[in-house]
Write a structure and sequence with these properties.
- With about 300 residues, the chain is α/β, with parallel strands linked by helices.
- The protein has three domains: about 80 residues, Arc Repressor Mutant, subunit A; about 100 residues, D-Maltodextrin-Binding Protein, domain 2 (3-Layer(aba) Sandwich), CATH 3.40.190.10; about 90 residues, Periplasmic binding protein-like II (D-Maltodextrin-Binding Protein, domain 2, 3-Layer(aba) Sandwich).
- It is built from twelve helices and twelve strands.
- It has a five-stranded mixed beta sheet, with helices on both faces.
- α1 crosses α2, α1 crosses α4 and α6 packs antiparallel against α12.
- The radius of gyration is 28 Å and the shape is elongated.
Length: about 300
């Protein structure tokens, strides 16, 4: 036997109204029906929930212990109904997907402003590459995402928000020589890149393939933050977004390696589930776009 919402609702109403008769009238069922629900609930839990004194009832110790659980479950059930009838993710769990560039530069501000605008919002954040975030969008597991060159279905709307400028980046002591380096020269260095699911990986391999060159040594790291640390320490050279290294480049802690062949920028889009679109999601879309512009994240 399992506990049902109908049983918990009957228990909660009796506890609050003080009698089976009042609870039955409030719910809209007969008194024998509500009594049956309580008998079934007590049998499932193996405890008595009420003591009876004429028409009035009082909760037992076990009843007092159950009421908090009952209210929590019933509240969650109400939230589910409200969320899906309204199709508004801000009334439930807002599921965000972002690339690491947005996460490192804009995400703290986005979370702070959502806290200011909405009452105790519940937010889940997935930081991932193009393949991971696109897959989650396609499977309806994200409400909104910032993603580079997304590969998504027709149920996802894409709003262009700029281009991600890329460059070969090395640590402070890297010798760029007398001029721009050709792909064959870059290929001779220890390189580090994102996994195959990432758009950066595809861009890097295409860049070398178009020049007829195969890199000698490529290490893979699924964290852009760790990749940057590896590059700054001089352990490897990486194809990276320029914006997230702006401060290091300005200080001279990182070097932008000049190359003979330009690296194509990544088109970045703000994506969301069309079926969930409404005023609140529109507000989050607008807020996200404003932060991208404010932080000059993409060009």
């Amino acid at each position: 036997m399992t506990v049902t919402l109908a049983q918990l609702k009957a228990f909660e109403r009796i506890a609050r109204l003080g009698s089976f008769h009042a609870a039955a009238k409030h719910i809209g069922i007969t008194q024998p029906s509500i009594s049956q629900r309580i008998r079934e609930l007590e049998a499932t839990l193996g405890v008595a929930l009420f003591t009876r004194n004429g028409p009035r009832v009082a909760m037992t110790a076990e009843g007092h212990a159950l009421i908090e659980y009952a209210e929590r479950v019933l509240g969650a059930a109400d939230d589910v109904v409200t969320r899906f009838r309204s199709r508004d993710p801000l009334l439930g769990l807002l599921r965000l997907g972002v690339n690491e560039s947005f996460a490192l530069i804009c995400l703290p501000d986005l979370m702070r402003r959502l806290e200011q605008r909405y009452s105790k919002p519940k937010i889940s954040v997935m930081v991932g590459d193009t393949g991971v975030v696109s897959g989650l969008l396609n499977n309806h597991q994200l409400d909104l995402a910032v993603v580079s060159q997304p590969n998504v279905g027709a149920h996802i709307r894409q709003i262009p928000v700029g281009q991600h400028e890329l460059a070969w980046i090395a640590g402070r002591g890297f010798d760029t020589g007398s001029g721009p380096l050709a792909p064959a020269q870059i290929a001779g260095h220890h390189l580090i890149c994102s996994p195959q699911s990432a758009r950066l990986y595809a861009t890097m391999t295409s860049w070398f393939a178009n020049a007829g060159v195969t890199p000698e040594r490529v290490s893979i790291c699924n964290s852009l933050s760790v990749t940057i640390r590896m590059v700054l320490s001089g352990l490897a050279v990486g194809m990276l977004p320029v914006r997230i290294l702006a401060a290091e480049l300005e200080r001279g802690d990182a070097v932008r390696v000049p190359v003979t062949t330009p690296i194509p920028a990544h088109r970045v889009s703000l994506c969301y589930q069309i079926a969930d679109f409404g005023p609140n999601l529109q507000a989050v879309v607008d807020l996200t776009r404003d932060l991208i512009v404010e932080h000059r994240l993409f060009r």
